[in-house]
Amino acid sequence: FYKSFVLQNIKKITECCSRYTFVIEDFGCLGFSIGQHLIMRASVDGETVSRQCTPISPPSAPGFFEVMIKVYPQGRMSKYIKTLKEGCSVEWRGPLGGLDYKPNEHNHMLLLAAGTGIAPMVQVLRHITSTDEDYTMVRLLFGIAKYKEIYLKDELDELKRFWNVSILYCLSDETKVEDLKYGDEVHCREIDEELLEVELSKYPTPPHVLLCGPNAFNSRFVNYLKKRAGSVTWHVF
Q1: Which residues constitute the signal peptide according to the record (predicted)?
Q2: Cα–Cα nearest to 53, from 32, 73, 79
Q3: How many domains does the chain fold into?
Q4: 146 marked as part of a ligand binding site
Q5: What is the pLDDT of residues 175-219, one digit of tens each?
């Protein structure tokens, strides 16, 4: 069922993407598990529309939850999102779905994310790095247009400090980065099959692959993994 939550804060990340913080009554918490998402519902031009969003706040965050939402010029739900103001109520359902994850089930994991598809990957990385006995080595390839537009950069910087996490930012709209932060690894091209093959070839045994991005992105790389020799396993959010 859907429940209304009050929008407490809107923080712009880029021109078309913002972080939205919602209040949970009685200082409660969502308590979602790894990889779960929420569904937002609204009425637009007399019709009910919905959109799936993955929380970017920690599962045990007290009294609030936070999501990252991108608006699109012709999007029907985007039309509604553009009207949101602090103090208004929004209907949400969930948490739903999830990832059947067991610590150390895979020696290596390779995460492929594009745009707001970074949200569930942050969940996964937080879960692994907060579990003392989880020694899974994780590599994230994050596709975004420009270096200065990297979503959740502060969170990713913190996660990258862990010994078992590495991140490659794949920049589709830049050929050179002028103000590269020390320690950041960039690739001035979009994620493609050639790059994926280079990454996969580094592992002595195939890593488990997680994917999250637009449908075309997910389909493209699932098709590649299906055709590739070797027993690569994967999960699409």
Answers
A1: none
A2: 32
A3: 2
A4: no
A5: 999 899 999 999 999 999 999 999 999 999 999 999 999 999 999
